[in-house]
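Collaborator request log, item 7. Partner lab (contact: R.S.) asked for a structural prediction of Heavy-metal-associated domain-containing protein to inform their binding assays.
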Amino acid sequence: MSTSTVTVTGMTCNHCVASVSEEIGAIPGVTSVDVDLTTGKVVIDSTTDLDPRAVSDAVEEAGYSVGG
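Returned to partner:
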């Protein structure tokens, strides 16, 4: 099991959270996605280490970006 944390910028509502969760959840190996709308923090559990580019691409597909 592996845990990754990223910060997503641009989310403003629960629909944003759902979109980000859905796209990241579609990455092979992801077992759970926990998004905090207030902070933008996204904690991702997966069966293997995730490629940061895959996470970034998924976030961008949802219409947001990975920030610092």
